[in-house]
């Protein structure tokens, strides 16, 4: 069928189109008629934030009648000549010579009339909300960041690995997990019967909370790998920072120690932020204007300045010496809370901060024990406005120490026999980290609620579509 | 820590390294000693199939003792001078001046000694099998194809969309699906009680079988989108072509009709095959040599020749007129079986074949009804050796016809109110297709069993790790 130019391409290469016959297809954001017999249509095709202004003649012999029926939300084709615009707010406009209406939108029913809608309301019409400026811009930024993640790792010789979604190991016993089953919960199991006898995998199966342990298998064969896929937590949290389903990037590298890991994580964040600043300029300007005034400064700082790196012990000292009143007390051996993290990155250093060498007791069994035997080679990266955005570590590569860690943490050596064998056969120092795509999206867009940075948020009680 | 050059980079730019001090890190595939006091180590770091030959002195004052302990599977560092090799089978070799052993592998225990192992055996040591030639090569090809999928769509202005994994709609009622729950199957529900009252989403939730319907939401806002993620079928099939968890690419395009859809699918396959032929040459030569002798010819045909396009009705005619004895009878209105598909693509046309306009009764409710009202605007693409690799359609964009289709197929209009609304508000002609990454992998590598082309296969009774 007829195919027009994408409006983003048209704006990018205006000079090539001006004075020429041009065809576009999209959805009407607004239409207004002037007394001078001219209709103005703001047309959007989703390829960019900006609408193309279409100038139409109300009394046009071919499309005049059709024009009357065109409403906000209608899908149309316009063919015309692209011209420099005399009006304010746009550089070019399309003077319509032909208009076709694909699909109408009844103004009495279409929920997205020109006005601002609350995010709560938009979540209830999740099938229409990508047609709004904010959700459309978030989708474009998410696309660009996701692709940049692949570009970054591919350029460094990493291999993209699909770690499993359904898993029989519950990782580090990481809190609440979803079960995957073909059993019908409405049909109870008889007392004493093995409930998994007739289940698909013939044993308990879960949705993954992390692909790390499986990525380690491939790092110890291919050298440098990364996974990028959905992960799941069945936590009953209704906050602006938690989702039951979210996307994680998890690189894992053989022959990398904690410092290499931290350097890579820093380069990674800088690259992603730089790509967003360069390639999503229009969408980020929109967010800076309507969502988060400090956005541009924060992103430029993250792209340009060296991250501060301190140890957990130094972080605790700084917090203890500060005059700040925290809701949670600060004490060596306790987790840093969000308020502590944000104080460090927003108030003390005013830029991204890496924290390394956390107490061994706070961290999972697979992190490498430092020579002091009190801390492990872990790292967190904090950014202003968002707090923790990356968590990682050097992995324990020494089989005896890994066994000791498993004993201490109550992990069954039988369940992780394969993980131990990776240390018995050609073990190497290796490291990795995880970055949650939605946390990154919150940092890059300034959008406060995580439900707006993913197309279809899953939270307790919510799994629409 | 010390970081060497990747062996793939070293082979790619040999001239830059010859005569220079070079450091590499990897795993020993084999080691043998010559009578002339020289040890030969085949070193692999996973960056490519080919091993780097290391020449070591058995009596070397620094590493001579260490060398004795080095076994197949050990992880080592070698520093030395890269030289042109006088021997056969390799162009360069590394003359060791320093060797470090990271991790040993006990030859009495390490299962991957130099010999060919069956794929069945390797599946039982899935944590070690990526260290073999075949599984390592498959992982590299899978990585390159996955990245090429993104490159293809990004270059055409598509947006990557993460469609949900957990879903409350069971799509087209597409066969067997997995439930997602936080209920414990060992704790039965009381008779008459709502089993979902205490479940995480407070209603039945499933693992997605396709992101198509959700991708349509974004295509009707952003224009051109694609999803690329895991999908699930709880089918109890133990065949070489079925997995319970597999990766699918699903593009969805506004303003595309069936012909546009078919053209895009053809360009897509040609691009992916061309990338594999160009960038995975060494791995594909390995597969052509050890797995599938016809591989190279098939791939070149797919990359170079125009696909044959016929209607379903023509396909049935060709099959009815053939002298071939099929196990399943051929009749208009019945599904084409694998044997029919392979006959068409392998025997009749000897290249990829597109089949369009299938009987309406065979296809799901969302496919666009043709003017004959007997067929729908569906397409399948078949390739030699694999059969169906892509399925797609133009979607029904007319609300009344969609409602009629739903009535005919017994789909509840209440459950799909949102899907109908996409047709009521700014509906446009649109199309899409789905490609299973593992089927593509089988086509591109010639690997017969689908369990070898995915890192962690999930099949009935199997969810290791």
Write the topology of this structure:
2 copies of one chain form a homodimer.
Chain A: H1 7-12, H2 14-17, E1 21-33, E2 38-44, E3 52-57, H3 64-69, E4 75-84, E5 92-103, H4 119-124, H5 133-155, E6 159-160, E7 166-167, E8 179-181, E9 206-207, H6 212-222, E10 224-232, E11 245-254, H7 258-279, H8 281-290, H9 295-304, E12 308-311, H10 312-321, H11 338-348, E13 353-359, E14 375-383, E15 387-394, H12 399-409, H13 417-424, E16 430-436, H14 437-445
Parallel strand pairs in A: 3-5, 6-10, 12-13
Antiparallel strand pairs in A: 1-2, 1-4, 2-3, 4-5, 7-9, 10-11, 11-16, 13-14, 14-15, 15-16
**What is the CA–CA distance across the termini of chain A?**
30 Å
Helix content of chain A: 25-40%
Structural class of chain A: alpha+beta
| Poorly predicted segments of chain A | none
Question: What is the average per-residue confidence, as pLDDT of chain A, rounded to a whole number?
Answer: 95
β-strand number of chain A:
16
Tell me what portion of residues of chain A adopts beta-strand conformation: 15-25%
- Largest inter-chain interface? A-B, 115 and 115 residues
The helix tally of chain A amounts to 14
- Radius of gyration of chain A (CA) equals 27 Å
The strand line-up of the biggest sheet of chain A is: 6-10-11-16-15-14-13-12
Overall form of chain A: elongated
Quaternary class: homodimer
For the largest beta-sheet of chain A, the strand count, sense and barrel status come to:
8 strands, mixed
Listing every helix as H and every strand as E from the N terminus to the C terminus, the arrangement of chain A reads HHEEEHEEHHEEEEHEEHHHEHHEEEHHEH
């Amino acid at each position: 069928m007829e195919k027009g130019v994408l409006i983003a391409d048209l704006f990018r290469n205006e000079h090539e189109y001006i004075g020429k016959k041009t065809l576009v297809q999209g959805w009407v954001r607004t239409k207004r008629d002037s007394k001078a017999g001219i209709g103005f249509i703001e047309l959007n095709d989703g390829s960019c934030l900006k609408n193309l202004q279409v100038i139409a003649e109300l009394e046009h012999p071919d499309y005049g009648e059709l024009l009357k029926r065109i409403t906000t939300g209608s899908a149309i084709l316009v063919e015309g000549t692209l011209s420099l615009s005399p009006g304010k707010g746009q550089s070019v406009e399309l003077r319509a010579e032909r208009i076709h209406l694909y699909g109408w939108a009844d103004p009495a029913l279409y929920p997205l009339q020109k006005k601002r809608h609350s995010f709560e309301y938009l979540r209830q019409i999740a099938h229409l909300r990508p047609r709004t400026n904010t959700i459309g811009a978030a989708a474009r930024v998410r696309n660009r960041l996701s692709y940049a993640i692949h570009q970054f790792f591919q350029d460094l010789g990493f291999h993209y690995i699909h770690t499993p979604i359904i898993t029989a190991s519950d990782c580090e016993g990481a809190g609440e997990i979803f079960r995957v089953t073909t059993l019908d919960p409405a049909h109870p199991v008889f007392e004493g019967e093995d409930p998994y006898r007739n289940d698909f995998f013939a044993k308990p199966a879960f949705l993954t909370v992390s692909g790390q342990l499986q990525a380690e298998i491939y790092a110890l064969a291919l050298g440098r790998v990364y996974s990028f896929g959905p992960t799941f937590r069945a936590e009953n949290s209704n906050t602006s920072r938690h989702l039951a389903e979210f996307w994680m990037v998890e690189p894992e590298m053989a022959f990398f120690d904690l410092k290499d890991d931290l350097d890579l994580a820093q380069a990674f964040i800088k690259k992603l932020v730089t790509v967003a600043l360069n390639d999503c300029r229009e969408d980020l300007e929109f967010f800076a204007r309507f969502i988060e005034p400090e956005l541009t400064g924060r992103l430029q700082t993250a792209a340009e300045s060296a991250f501060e790196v301190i140890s957990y012990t130094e972080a605790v000292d700084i917090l203890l010496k500060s005059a700040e009143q925290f809701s949670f007390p600060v004490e060596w051996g306790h987790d840093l809370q969000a308020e502590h993290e944000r104080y460090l990155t927003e108030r003390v250093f005013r830029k991204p901060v890496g924290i390394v060498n956390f107490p061994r007791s706070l961290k999972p069994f697979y992190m490498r024990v430092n020579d002091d035997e009190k801390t492990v080679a872990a790292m967190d990266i904090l950014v202003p406005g968002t707090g923790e955005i990356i968590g990682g570590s050097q992995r324990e590569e020494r089989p005896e120490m890994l066994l000791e860690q498993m004993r201490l943490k109550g992990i069954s050596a039988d369940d992780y026999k394969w993980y131990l064998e990776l240390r018995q056969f050609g073990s190497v120092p290796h490291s990795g980290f995880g970055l949650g795509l939605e946390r990154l999206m919150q940092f890059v867009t300034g959008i406060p609620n995580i439900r707006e940075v993913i197309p279809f948020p899953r939270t307790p009680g919510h799994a629409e579509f």
